[in-house]
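Structure first, sequence second, as always.
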């Protein structure tokens, strides 16, 4: 683990952060940890031992919100036995009115509710919460997102946001409402951050954004995502350059060409399809058709000698009929994704889809997702089996907590490979022979 930069106070207590949701939140938690350490707090492994407890939340599906509310319920006794404990509800969920309302009514022991917009003001807000016996609810305008202290949680791979927010307003999605409109960071700030991380010894950088492919459109600097990839690819010392998430509408041939020419840009493309039905795609406001998506994947196959393709799929979007679902299955069978993250549509307050007619019954949604998962698992397994007996170059990223000889590594195509060795291989780029294939992971042999 790395130290956060900046001024550090004398030890004032201990903190514990629990992170829900996507990589953006993982990064934001690293910033929260940075702030807390600059305020003099130290991390602890047990929540019972902390003085500040942060839940960094996600609002993307209802289940994610329910999980946090039931977690809050379970925290009530801890707060009773430890009245000085500060409980913070942070992140995307905390950005919504109905959530702060519910906290006020049912969980008034929470000390601070603050969203992604107030990340720069976290220390002041926490201090305010410490001095108050009411719940402090931050409803401020989006603040600055540069110059944060970041306490990185990993020594080998690091996250670097290149944009914040989203302008796409897919009709099912809460993200534009809780993260605000899309804003690109300046190329100089990104390049400086990546260079600094390489100097510190990081091997793998993942660029983050809700739609990385539209990077730069709001900057007028004549730089797009493909250009940014190319510049970062040339930085000495970097091993793997990854990015997420792509949007099919903005993923263009220039990006594919730069992946092909790049040395560090990994040949893994996460390209959320969401649905295979043109009718549903239109209702989702995704801005492409199945034919367009197919031609894009064909272009990728034509231009890249090897690659992996993963996707996100939603079943049970309002108005999805059996024939629309069949269209999704057909696309899945035709394209053969290496992996798919599948979700049951969840209505989100404030989004357009929530008010659409013909919401799909829960038992139909369940049936569809089970069938989709069954088909996709077979495809993932078939794809992974093709690697049996081959040598793969992997970056060793971590080791098992229970057995230090068991390593986790990843191929450029983002396949996770577990293997055993007595040597210290963390951060090394090595060749392993694939001896076992499962749908989500591979087992390798290192000699
Ligand atoms: N910006 C990224 C990630 C968005 S959230 C993107 O555009 O792909 C990650 C995934 O959650 C989405 O791709 C979508 O498949 C899923 N998702 C978002 N809103 C959802 C909802 N209301 N119900 C079910 N799944 C949802
Ligand atoms: Fe949500 Fe669509 Fe934006 Fe992704 S692109 S964050 S799914 S609105
Ligand atoms: Fe969830 Fe917020 Fe990410 S809603 S998926 S944590 S951007």
């Amino acid at each position: 683990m790395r130290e956060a930069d900046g001024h550090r106070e004398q030890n004032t207590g201990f903190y514990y952060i629990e992170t829900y949701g996507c990589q953006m939140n993982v990064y934001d938690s690293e910033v929260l940890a940075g702030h807390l350490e600059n305020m003099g707090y130290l991390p602890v492994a047990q929540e019972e031992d902390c003085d500040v407890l942060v839940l960094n939340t996600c609002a993307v599906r209802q289940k994610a919100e329910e999980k946090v509310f039931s977690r809050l319920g379970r925290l009530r006794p801890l707060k009773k036995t430890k009245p000085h404990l500060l409980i913070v509800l942070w992140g995307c969920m905390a950005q919504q009115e109905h959530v702060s309302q519910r906290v006020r009514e049912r969980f008034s022991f929470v000390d601070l509710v603050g969203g992604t917009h107030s990340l720069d003001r976290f220390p002041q807000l926490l201090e305010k919460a410490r001095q108050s016996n009411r719940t402090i609810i931050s409803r401020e305008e989006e603040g600055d997102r540069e110059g944060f202290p970041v306490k990185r949680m990993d020594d080998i791979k690091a996250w670097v946001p290149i944009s914040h927010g989203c302008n796409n307003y897919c009709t099912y999605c809460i993200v534009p409402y809780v993260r605000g409109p899309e804003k690109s960071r300046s190329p100089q700030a990104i390049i400086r951050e990546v260079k600094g991380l390489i100097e510190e010894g990081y091997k793998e950088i993942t660029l983050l954004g809700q739609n990385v492919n539209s990077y730069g459109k709001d900057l007028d600097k004549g730089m797009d995502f493909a250009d940014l990839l190319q510049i970062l690819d040339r930085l000495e010392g970097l091993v793997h350059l990854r990015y997420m998430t792509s949007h099919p509408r903005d993923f263009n041939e220039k990006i594919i060409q730069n992946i092909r020419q790049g040395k560090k840009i990994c040949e893994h493309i996460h390209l959320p399809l969401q649905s295979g039905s043109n009718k549903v795609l239109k209702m989702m406001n995704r801005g492409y058709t199945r034919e367009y998506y197919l031609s894009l994947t064909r272009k990728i196959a034509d231009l890249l000698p090897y690659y992996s393709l993963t996707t996100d799929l939603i079943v049970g979007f309002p108005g999805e009929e059996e024939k629309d679902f069949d269209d999704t299955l057909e696309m899945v069978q035709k394209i053969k994704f290496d992996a798919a993250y599948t979700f049951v549509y969840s209505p989100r307050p404030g989004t357009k889809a929530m008010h659409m007619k013909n919401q799909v019954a829960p038992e139909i949604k369940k049936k569809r997702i089970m069938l989709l998962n069954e088909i996709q698992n077979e495809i993932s397994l078939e794809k992974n089996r093709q690697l049996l007996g081959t040598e793969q170059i992997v970056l060793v990223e971590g080791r098992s907590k229970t057995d230090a000889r068991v390593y986790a590594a990843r191929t450029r195509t983002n396949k996770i490979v577990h293997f055993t060795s007595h040597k210290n291989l963390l951060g090394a780029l090595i060749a392993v022979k694939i001896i076992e294939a499962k749908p989500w992971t591979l087992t390798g042999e290192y000699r």
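Margin note: The chain has a mean pLDDT of 95.
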